[in-house]
Design goal:
Layout lengths: L1 H8 L7 E3 L15 E4 L5 E5 L9 H22 L9 H10 L9 E10 L2 E5 L6 E4 L21 E10 L4 E5 L1 H17 L9
Antiparallel strand pairs: 1-3, 2-3, 4-5, 4-7, 5-6, 7-8
Length: 201
């Protein structure tokens, strides 16, 4: 009940005006739809009442302002999409070409993991497109999920390019080959030091 009273309290209405139709049966403002009522004498009178929705809180006002801004921005995007942009489309393509690196297979590069899924991880390598680290290339060991190898979003590491996905021109990366290289380096070091080690055959 209090809600209804609050809504009626916030209505902005001009005072209801009652008048009789003139001889031409025309109303002063055709945009307002009048209500006709019959008074006690049988004459038909017209009551004009208009109401606007209540703007009760600052949040609603802020939402209305944002809605208006978005509508204006949408209109600008439709009518003049390049208005206010400080560069041309050619300059944009030239800037993208700066980040179009031609990575060869075997190239080592730094990247940041920004997404993991059941099949691997997506790595940002600051190129036009992101790269993919399949789960089989995430570790020397057999794992079921890349998180088992310590690969989480936000991890920055060095990867090696092992291929290219032709469907979307993204690179296929590997940590496994880097780990193999490190393991062989450690084996050579142990051999040079003549260390006895235990291993599974």
């Amino acid at each position: 009940m209090a809600y209804v009273a609050q809504q009626f309290g916030g209505l902005k209405c001009p005072s209801a005006s009652t008048f009789t139709k003139n001889n031409n049966n025309k109303l002063p403002n055709p945009s307002i739809r009048p209500f006709e009522i019959a008074n006690r004498r049988g004459r038909r009178s017209v009551i004009i009442a208009s109401a606007s929705s209540a703007i009760a809180s600052p949040e609603v006002r802020e939402r209305m302002k944002l809605k208006e801004l978005f509508e204006q921005a949408y209109e600008r995007c439709i009518t003049a999409p390049m208005e206010g942009v400080n560069f041309t489309l050619e300059e944009f393509h030239a800037a993208l070409d700066k980040y179009d690196f031609n990575f060869e297979i075997g190239t080592k590069l730094k990247g940041t993991v920004f997404s993991v899924d059941a099949n691997g991880a997506i790595v940002d390598i600051t190129a036009k497109s992101s790269a993919y680290l399949p789960i089989r290339e995430a570790s020397l060991h057999t794992i079921k999920h890349v998180e088992e190898a310590g690969i989480f979003p936000g991890l920055r590491d060095e990867f090696v390019v092992i291929g290219m996905n032709q469907s979307d021109d993204s690179l296929v990366l590997s940590l496994r080959s880097i780990q193999y290289d490190l393991a062989w380096e450690r084996c050579r070091q142990l051999q040079a030091e003549d260390v006895v080690v235990k291993s599974k055959v």
